[in-house]
């Protein structure tokens, strides 16, 4: 039986995105482009809440590239006024906002086949995937790293759970623009590099170690 999925007529931006994963990927931390990102949303319900904004910044060769950054705001049909106190994004206002389709197209083009990094990655990924599903598109193909899980790879941190504010304090990271997508992405990028640097001091760190899960030998 031939799957219709294989022959689905996806939009050009998705086809271009998919092709990039057929290319040979680097297998070293220094040669990998990491995209650290964050979403601000109307709430925590994957099915019913929506992405309000996405902020991201690239890391290459252990350096945060401020020129390789991304920030976008999404138009809202439904809006929760009670969440404005957290993210500060109004339904109207002077911010330029794109449709969900336009926002996803821009984000997909920006990330390419990079490794995605976020704090508590699962939520941000699922919010993006839910948006893609509404557009009748597949899920993201990128490898992902959760800085919360990565922190647990440090010696003596296996059974702990830490939010971003706690880890900022531990690593002395200023919390400028906290609770904006772009601000949290930059903070998380700093955290990612500090955890990587600490891990390198503790042991030989390889690219594959970043993706090891519990139950495997190695950093966990």
Topology of this structure?
Elements (H helix, E strand, L loop, with lengths): L11 H9 L13 E8 L9 E10 L2 E11 L10 H4 L12 H12 L3 E4 L2 H14 L9 E3 H6 L11 H7 L10 H22 L18
Parallel strand pairs: 1-4, 4-5
Antiparallel strand pairs: 1-2, 2-3
Helix pairs in contact: 1-3
Structural account:
- With 220 residues, the chain is an alpha/beta fold.
- The chain has one domain: Nucleotidyltransferase, domain 5.
- It has 7 helices and 5 strands; from the N terminus they run H-E-E-E-H-H-E-H-E-H-H-H.
- A 5-stranded mixed sheet has the order 3-2-1-4-5, sandwiched between helices.
- Strand 4, helix 4 and strand 5 form a beta-alpha-beta unit.
- The longest helix has 22 residues.
- The chain is globular, with a radius of gyration of 18 Å.
- The N and C termini lie far apart (42 Å).
- The relative contact order is 0.17.
